Amino acid sequence: MSKRKKETILKEPKVDKRVELLSIVFRLANSHEYSQNLFPKYVESIENHFGEFRSHDLIKYVKDELREDGIGFSSVMSMAIHITKPPNIKPIITLFG
Fold first, then answer.
1. Quick count: other Cβ atoms within 10 Å of Cβ 25?
2. Is the CB of residue 88 less than 8 Å from the CB of residue 51?
3. How far is 38 from 28, CA to CA, in rounded Å?
4. 3, 30, 45, 59: least CB-packed within 10 angstroms?
């Protein structure tokens, strides 16, 4: 393998805060695809830290509008990569026209 190729390999895993945030939002909105319990300690941490926000307007919006329109699975991740990082979230491009 060439030296240039080695330099492009990710040295250590990193968390994308946008992806993490929208995954948690859709979990709190009871989206089936984001409600698995494969990692119980992680799920417990999410519930302990964010559970009180289940009645937040964003969670209601996701439940009432986005999920009803079929937004889920990879659409959520597509939205995540098209917004700026928290805490000052803004669209990078127009998501819905």
1. 22
2. no
3. 16
4. 3
Checking if the pLDDT of 94 tops 90, the result is no
Dihedral sign of CA atoms 82, 41, 45, 54 in order? positive
Phi, psi of 43 (to 5 degrees): -60, -45
Q: Please indicate whether residue 13 or residue 22 has the higher confidence score (pLDDT).
A: 22
Structure tokens at 35: 């409600």
pLDDT per residue as tens digits for the range 56-72: 999 999 999 887 777 88
In angstroms, rounded to a whole number, what is the distance separating the alpha carbons of residues 24 and 64? 17
- Contact call for residues 29 and 67 (beta carbons, < 8 A): yes
Give the residue-averaged pLDDT of 25-49.
94
pTM recorded for the entire structure: 0.79
Closest CA to 50 of 34, 67, 66, 69: 34
- What average pLDDT is seen over the chain? 87
